[in-house]
Design a protein that fits this description.
119 residues, mainly alpha, two-stranded antiparallel ribbon
Length: 119
């Protein structure tokens, strides 16, 4: 360790403990994420293998094959829309309200929009 050290020889112990501290800190920070990835992979493999088991697996029961979740598609097959909601301009600014389409996320928002449109 002393060949690679930039500190004097009497501070080697301090440098060793600093090195151990940062290695421990790195392990503590990386390990939870790594464990979640490994757990997800093992769970997916177990479900995929259990699907193929004869007599009581998913294929024998007529179920769909397990798939990884998708951010672009809902479980019922419809595509997700990634928007906050509000006006989407489809024409120039001079068109006014006729050039806008509204995508409300809530019935209260739709009621407010209808009240504004009636005025």
């Amino acid at each position: 360790m002393t060949w690679l050290s930039i500190l004097p020889a009497h501070l080697t112990v301090v440098e060793t403990w600093i090195t151990r501290f940062f290695l421990l800190l790195g392990i503590v920070l990386i390990l939870p994420g790594l464990l979640l990835i490994v757990y997800d992979l093992v769970l997916y493999l177990v479900r995929a293998i259990a699907y193929e088991v004869p007599y009581f697996g998913g294929r024998a029961r007529g179920r769909q094959r397990p798939r990884a979740p998708s951010l672009a598609e809902r479980p019922n097959g419809r595509a997700r829309t990634f928007s906050i909601g509000g006006p989407v301009m489809s024409g120039s600014d001079s068109e006014g309200r006729e050039g806008m389409r509204w995508r409300p996320h809530d019935a209260r928002i739709q009621a407010n929009i209808d009240a504004v449109v009636e005025e």
